[in-house]
Amino acid sequence: PLGLRFPDGFVWGAATSAYQIEGATKEDGRGESVWDTFSHTPGRIKGGDTGDVAADHYHRYAGDLDLMRDLGLRSYRFSIAWPRIQADGAGAPNQRGLDFYRRLVAGLHERGIAPMATLFHWDLPQALQDAGGWESRDVALRFADYADAVFTALGDDVPVWLTINEPKTVVQNGYLQGHHAPGRQDPEAAHLVAHHLQLAHGLAVQALRSRGGPGRIGPAFNLHPCYPADSSPAAAAATTLYDGYENRFYLDSVLTGRYPADVLDDLGPDSRLARGIRDGDLDIIATPVDLLAVQYYTPIYVTAAGGTVTRWPTSQADWQQIHPDGLYDILTRVTRDYGPLPISITENGLPTTDALGPDDTVDDAGRVTFLRDHIAAAHRAIADGVPLESFHVWSLMDNFEWAEGYDQRWGLIHVDYPTQRRILKRSAHWYRSVIADNAV
Ligand code: FCB
């Protein structure tokens, strides 16, 4: 142990998302999402995997809740599947879909675990994709309706809401690189999508505010500290612009009501983004939030030519360089640049390849080291004034890791997919003691 105690009341949690764990994709009136379509498209997902069954959490949630209690979790971050609530992305909410999340939320409260609900973790109703997806401004308006239906059903029972999970990942993976749904490679579309995702965020915040009630709400951004790959002025300049696309585009719009001028300049006055921003949009986007959810996995090193290089050892996820100081840097920077908004770390974690041992153990020592070092970095950030409230491990359990299918295991809990048996990994036992001690 490092002997680093956290402030009293610090909240320890773990995170998941609907499509990655629930399965039951055709039950209780759920409609199709873009991830059903994408995962069923040959060649898109490693091994041809889909989320049809995933960790079967839709049926096994009660046992999973007991595991959360056994770990001592104080917070559980999950996401609500829009197509369970509105099969086609519009109209009256589907009661059976809402009921699942009501049962989940009630089960959390029974076990003393605070629910933290994400409204959108990438599973857009396919019908809305067919109507233009996030390229269509109307989808942001649909999102506000959906959010309102969810708040009406669950608003009094969920203390923390997150709007859109990692808008940047939808932009970059879904619309620039194309290895996530909907699988596009269209930079002009991508940045308009970014705006509509930000707009959807702001409209959902307004929907919660107009209902009143106790819930707090904020955006969930994956922030990447960007460092120059060398000491040249050109690398410094390239890093600043890179940071604009990675971080400031999202942070500035929500927290200052402006898109960064360097990014807008770089895209040009005729970009679909520039043409898609209407008067008043940024006021909506900048509707005051209660907290900022930060997800941290990796730093980025930017070359003079605007490319990237790898500086630290990578994990099984080739995009992930292991660099705990990056978490400290991004937390302190956000507090310095945007003021003392409460921050929750809503994702941090590592995939490991450790197999299930014969004695039903999984020795994921690498995950323990990774989490310990990142939690220590978070502790240092708190000591230096960052108002950090909580830390959530990605992920509670192994799950469908998008284009990587089931090959990458990110969980504290091992899922034996053929039997759906859950086995606590070494990291889960370790995390239980971190929670009990409120210290690493
Ligand atoms: C994040 C996603 C989450 C999971 C982790 C590994 O970008 O929000 O669903 O895929 O990465």
UniProtKB/TrEMBL annotation:
Its EC number is 3.2.1.21. It is an enzyme of class 3 (hydrolase). The active site is at residues 166, 347. It comes from the Bacteria. The keyword Transcription does not apply. One of its GO terms (cellular component) is cytosol. GO terms for molecular function: beta-glucosidase activity. NCBIfam families: BGL. This is Beta-glucosidase. The lineage of its organism: Bacteria, Bacillati, Actinomycetota, Actinomycetes, Micromonosporales.
